[in-house]
Each structure stands twice: as structure tokens, then as C-alpha cells.
Amino acid sequence: MDRSDNVYRTCVEILRRELVCAMGCTEPIALAYCAATARSVLGAVPDRITVEASGNIIKNVKSVVVPHTGGRRGIAAAAAIGVLGGDETAGLEVISRVGADKIEALGSYLEHTPIEIKSLESEQLLDMIVTVYKGDSCAKVRIANEHTHIVRVERDGRVLRESDAAPVKEDAVPDYGLLSVENIYDFACTCDLEDVRPVLDRQIELNTAIAEEGLRHDYGANIGKVLLTTGDTLRIRAKAYAAAGSDARMNGSEMPVVICSGSGNQGLTASLPVIVYARGMNTGEEKLYRALLISNLITLHCKASIGRLSAYCGAVSAGAGAGAGIAYLHGGDERVIAHTIVNCLAITSGIVCDGAKSSCAAKIATAVETGIFGYEMFKNGQQFYGGDGLVVKGVENSIANFGRLGRVGMRETDQEIIRMMTE
Q1: 3-state DSSP call for residue 128?
Q2: Per the domain annotation, does 133 fall within a domain?
Q3: Do 239 and 283 lie in a common domain?
Q4: What is the DSSP letter of 139?
Q5: Would residue 27 count as lying in a domain?
Q6: What is the CATH number of the domain that holds 104?
Q7: Total domain count for the chain?
Q8: Residue 182 class from Cβ within 10 Å (0-12 exposed, 13-18 middle, 19+ buried)?
Q9: Long-range contacts of range 212-218, CB-CB < 8 Å, 24 or more positions apart?
Q10: How many CB atoms lie within 10 A of CB 291?
Q11: Among 162, 195, 220, where does a domain finish?
Q12: Are residue 290 and residue 376 in the same domain, yes or no?
């Protein structure tokens, strides 16, 4: 594939847009970013805050530890640290540079500042409005559809900025519809690595670092550590590293990760198993980079028709991506990768998302195991065929079917999960 090819350029743009840094779980961090932006518009630290959030935001913020908050969880902690010390220019690293004085002041601020939390009825699964007050003045910021997509800014009732809250459609957004297993494999095999080296180097460095942090220290249920007690094979280490990164990230680690499809857990799942296998197999740097291109882009392709948030666990898509990357490391071609993806999706697509929390690490380990098993099935002459459940003939048709399951079929499941978690 030539550099001038539209698919080539689109793949590079998608990778640069998606593989960005975030500190902490992306939903509470998006709330902190929204709150920090509102405080900036207000021009003062607010004495009252109102947060309106869609069900999926509430679900994903409820149980996860927010970094720089002394182990606190939930919407109030995310909004408060955002207004106290967030840098509204830093995107998903909004609270990465919070000063020690702000962290120390957080407890008192939460105790003395009324923070009202409301459920937001919205067509968008990712939707939030933060309104901050200081005396008679107020500022309001709304983020919808993507974690840093600000669609409305107000100050004292006057609209300062407004855009469509529907899915981002600016001309600068690449066409995700060009992603297919065939195009992804062609791009990964022919890409000039200098075009993608910076984003992949950052992913390798940061995601490996937080995995090692998770294995060194006590975080959540310590799924990564538990896995390593069962053996020291490449397969176990691949699962353990991905899980350990999530152990740390879900339980307050202040180390950044490189995300994928708006999710740090998906970024960890898509990258760390491939990194572990490449290093264990001594494949060399170039092979690792190309395997990561496959893993990341397959993850994005599988998630594209589902959306950022749903009742469908995103680790399933990332596990399929990791399995595809590992298949490539073992010499698998496009056909092998396609069957690996279908086998994987056929097994684990029933895993639900019940919010960000410690058990995400175990779901990640399961998704990675299935990705590897999906490859090993096909390597041993076994596969799932069209008519086996939601599997249909052709990898793209199967991906579309499972995407429909996550986007449409599990919509009521999502609502019931939210009701159960908020009751």
C-alpha cells in the first residue's frame, strides 16, 4: 500500500487520533475535564457544582478510583479534583499535574461544597453537563459522544460555543468505514514505520510501565499477580501484564496509559499481550510494530459500529485485536487473522460492561485468553462456521453482526445494568 493511498493516510490519522495518553479511567477523567473547563469559563473556584450525567457515565464512574483524590471514587470526586486543580488545556491528562496543595484541599472542598448529581436523559450514551457557580455567576459545559468533545459552553446564560452533540463529523475526522481486515492487514504489512513510530513507542513505553507497576504493588484484586502464580508461560504473562495494567489503572494509579477506542483498558488489552509475545519470541522491533498496528486497528474496527460506551465489554474487541496481533507474530496471514477474530468474537461476546472497577482486569484476562485460543483453534484446523450462533460467512459480516449485538441488541441490557447499579 502506497503512502499516497487514501486508506494508508486514513489508518495513520486514525492511529494518531486514537492512541493518545490518559491518566485514570476515561469517564471520570472526562468529567474532570468538563469540570475544569467550566471552572475556567467561570474564572473562579466554584462554591457549588451540578453534574448531569448519562447512565453510561454514571455506570463507569461509580466504582473506579480517581487519581490524585486519596483513593476516592465517583462523580463528586472527579468533578471536585477537576475544578480544584485540573488543567483544561490537557485533555484526558487534565489532572496529571494537580499540585499537592490541591490534593490536600480536596477533602475540605468536598465537605463544604454542595455537589448535586443528576441523571441526564439523552440520546447520546456518553453525555455530561457540568454547571459551576460562584455567587450569582455560573458557567456550564457539555461534553457528548466522545470524551473531550465539548458541544456547548455557557457563561451566565449566554452561549459562548455550541456544536452538534451527535457523533463527531468534522472534516478532520478520518473515515473509520475504510477499516476492514483486508485493508488493515495490507497497511500493517506495508506501512513505513516512521509514520507510526512515535505513537507506538509511546504505547509500548507507557502501557508496559503501568503493567509493571500493577505487578509490583497492591491494586484492587491483583488479577495480574494471581495469574503469575499459575505459571510463567508466554500465554500467562500476556494475560497477567494486561490485567496488571488494569489492576493499577482501575484502582488509582497516577501513571498514564495510551488508550484505544476511548478506553485505557482497551489500550492495555490491545497492546500488552502483543508486546509480551513479541519480546518472548524475540521477533524484533519491526515485527512488534506491525503486530501492534494490526491489534490496535482491529480493535478499533470491531468497536466502530458499537460506539464508545455500551453494555458490551470493550475488552472483547481488544482481545480479538490482541489475538490477531499474536497470530501475525506467529506468521499468520490475512486469512489466519480473519479466522482468529471470528473465533474470538464467537466465544466471548456475551461479556457485559457493568462499569469500570477492579473486575475489569479479570475480564481483560479472559478476553486475551480467548484471543489466543481463537488463533490456536484455527492453527489446529478448527473454526466456527456461518450459522454457528451469530457467526455468518465472511469476517466483515461477522464483525457487523457482533457490532449490532453490542449497539442494538444489548441496549435494554445496558439500561437494566444501569438501573441495578443505581438502585
Answers
A1: strand
A2: yes
A3: yes
A4: E
A5: yes
A6: 3.30.1330
A7: 2
A8: middle
A9: 212/244, 213/244, 213/248, 213/253, 213/255, 214/243, 214/244, 214/245, 214/246, 214/247, 214/248, 214/249, 214/253, 215/240, 215/241, 215/244, 217/248
A10: 27
A11: 162
A12: yes
- Which amino acid appears at position 39 of this protein? R
DSSP letters for 209-220: HHHHHHHHS--T
Contact in structure between 61 and 147 (CB atoms under 8 Å): no
CA–CA dist 22, 39 (Å, integer): 21
Place of cell 454542595: 114
Residue 403 domain boundaries: 174-422
The dihedral formed by the CA atoms of 34, 254, 269 and 18, expressed in degrees to the nearest 10: 40
Do 156 and 193 belong together in one domain?
no
Angle, vertex CA 34, rays to CA 30 and CA 40, nearest 5: 140
> Strand pairing partners for 59?
none
- For the chain, 423 residues long, give each residue's pLDDT as a single digit of tens: 899 999 999 999 999 999 999 999 999 999 999 999 999 999 999 999 999 999 999 999 999 999 999 999 999 999 999 999 999 999 999 999 999 999 999 999 999 999 999 999 988 889 999 999 999 999 999 999 999 999 999 999 999 998 765 544 555 689 999 999 999 999 999 999 999 999 999 999 999 999 999 999 999 999 999 999 999 999 999 999 999 999 999 999 999 999 999 999 999 999 999 999 999 999 999 999 999 999 999 999 999 989 888 889 999 999 999 999 999 999 999 999 999 999 999 999 989 999 999 999 999 999 999 999 999 999 999 999 999 999 999 999 999 999 999 999 999 999 999 899 887
Kindly state whether residues 192 and 153 are assigned to the same domain.
no
* 323 and 206, same domain (yes or no): yes
Rounded alpha-carbon distances, angstroms, from residue 216 to 224, 232, 248, 356, 362: 10, 16, 10, 22, 18
Instruction: Name residue 258's beta-bridge partners.
Output: 21
Q: Taking a C-beta distance cutoff of 8 angstroms, is the pair 321, 302 a contact?
A: yes
Tell me the C-alpha distance between 294 and 324, whole Å.
7
Query: Computed from CA positions of residues 271, 277, 283, 287, in that sequence, does the dihedral angle turn out positive or negative?
Result: negative
Distance CA(220)–CA(358), nearest Å, equals: 5
The grid coordinates of residue 279 equal: 519480546
